[in-house]
Specification:
By secondary structure, the protein is of the alpha/beta class. 45% of the residues lie in helices and 16% in strands. Bound molecules: phosphoenolpyruvate and magnesium ion (MG). The site of magnesium ion has 5 residues, from α23.
Amino acid sequence: MLYSEVLEEISRELPLFENSSDRDSFLKETVGKIKRAINADMAAVFIQDDGKGDLVLRAGVDSDGVWDHLNCPDCTDTDKPFRFSFDLNDAGRAFNEGRVIRRTYPSGDADHGFRSKIIVPLARGPMRLGVLIIADFREDAFDDLDDGEILSSSSRLADLIEDASVLISHEVKANGTRIIQGRKAGSGIAMGRALPFWADMESAAQTISPASSKEEELARFDRSLERSIRQLKEIRQKAEEGISETGAMIFMAQILMLRDESFTGMMREAIEKGDTATTAIRRVVTDYADRFSQMAEERLAEKSQDVRDLGYRMITNLASGESREFSYEGRIALARHIYPSDLFRLSLEGISGVVLMGAAATAHISILAGSLGLPVLITEDKALLGIPDGTQLILDGDGHRLYVEPAEDLLEEYRLKLSLVSPSPDYYTLKGATADGTAVKVMANVNILKDAEEARKQGAEGIGLYRSEFPFILKNDILSEEQQYKVYRSVVETQKGKPVVLRTADIGGDKILQGREDQESNPFLGVRGIRFSLAHKEMFRDQLRAMLRAGVNADLGIMLPMVSGVEEVLEAREQIEKAASDLHQRGVAYNPHPRIGAMVEIPSAALAVQELASHVDFLSIGTNDLTMYLLAVDRTNENLSHLYSSRHPTILRAINHIVHGAQKSGTKVSVCGDAAADPVLTPFFVGIGIRELSVSPHTIESIKKRLAAINLEDAETIAKEMLAIGRIDEMETYLKENTERLALGELTIR
Ligand code: PEP
Ligand code: MG
């Protein structure tokens, strides 16, 4: 049985451990199974000792039997667990550097005579847990284990150890802690107090007692208004100074509403007639919110949540004393439905996490949660609806659960986990190149401004894809030329002269701008990307003018999404020329010579690549959509995810066809879909002649390392071999073997 299969079996058996009293017996069984599965002579798990740094033996097994931290071959003092101090050895190095370390000892290691050893870090997302050490008396014992596979299986092992510790120890220790299960839409951990969105204004109102007189009610109303405006201005300021694009605009709309005399005037009038300030705010807000929610246009209907939100802020601010001032900080929002714009705003206001009821999340919620670094959980458990405002919660996105009223020891454990999350290191400098010096640029895919900053820190060689529909989606509205210009200029400035490719809005498909499109029965085959832009030319030219202005004194590329043929490129070029001439007439500074590119992500564009290439300055292969349209598999359909693979021979042949077509007319071609960050495909891309990849900021360093481990000649051989394969199962087998050959150094010059 393979290591990965053993882990699957253990995960199926996990519920059987629910009644066990300690995690160590679970670990002992697990290492025993791993040792048997890979036919090794020894396996042991070391877990980091509660934040003290040392790696402590928790369970091990060798031919003499099972041992634990007080009873093992290396235990000299039977009162103390066997531990590795942190940085002096292979275990510490594997743990710190997050990589697999292999060792061979031709005449046996000094302690036990092992001739081969493999040390594997156990990590769960950014959280490091410990290491797994496997050893054998044979020298070539682990040659058939692939580093990549063992690393991914080991993160599964880390999950299992954590799940087991929750099931085993906390069901017992947490006395009274309720667990709500769900699925992850955003990684990470959040600790905080519940903020139920279905009861917000009402529950806040219950905590406010009436004032002694009408004058006092009016005075506290004015104070609340002034506080609410001040708070929103502060957040807006933060959004402007920080790395947020539409945030400032979103908060401005709320400020304007509070300044609107007809809105607050109705509240004041009601107080003068004898209502308490709480009742007055509730009435007017509910009335406005209801009117918005009845509007046919969804974009306006959505504003009802903004109004309720204002009501909640104002009522909370009615309470006297600074400590009761309204704040989202340290709160975990519980909501039925959320728009990407809400998620973005809540994140800017310092929310710690979000739990959603029902299957409300679109692909954008997950993409955005990832970019914002916000833990988000989606649950079907109706118990969520009964959680009162202010309840203590722990949200564990990667653990797929929410703890309600966690016991103190669980809180303590999660505090420790949060303190162990290692911040990503800053400022990498490695250049993208193969081991023998062939330059392959590694650029960044950017969705929100925060990604652009991150891209620079991670050593991106520019931005290969900026998804300009994001500001629209975040604001859930169209932005003016001026507003767009500010956002794009900020993106361009983060790169300090490096190339920036701004893609025109890819609205439609799964990137829905609520209320903007006509309902289509098949939006992926509907008015999407360049079709949407060419159907809304005024809007398109606003965007193009904003892009041309943002590209002043910069290396600017403008890229067209979802192009199906040359005609669309020619029409779009006409619009670009018109936009430039508008700016010229207005006497506004702009970039007169942007490079114009097209995405190749529709089969017709892939087949007509030569014609397309002769009308653009560059092409970029969007493997996400190309895979979807070539295989006829919806990229967002979880039930079909086993059929959606960019490693499919057909996709790889199509990519090769595109590259060759582009090369014939000397047009540069890059890859910017998710496949660009698949390390298993890196040799293929290099081998067929790709010299530019664009990936999400957090994968830049790993792709550069991958490039540095291969040489051009090997990559060309691999690509040729891959192109001869016609079946997906054969391709997967080939990729696995090939990755092993690379890992073993058979294919590289190092
Ligand atoms: C793609 O389709 O591969 C791509 C990069 O575009 P998006 O994911 O934004 O559709
Ligand atoms: Mg696409």
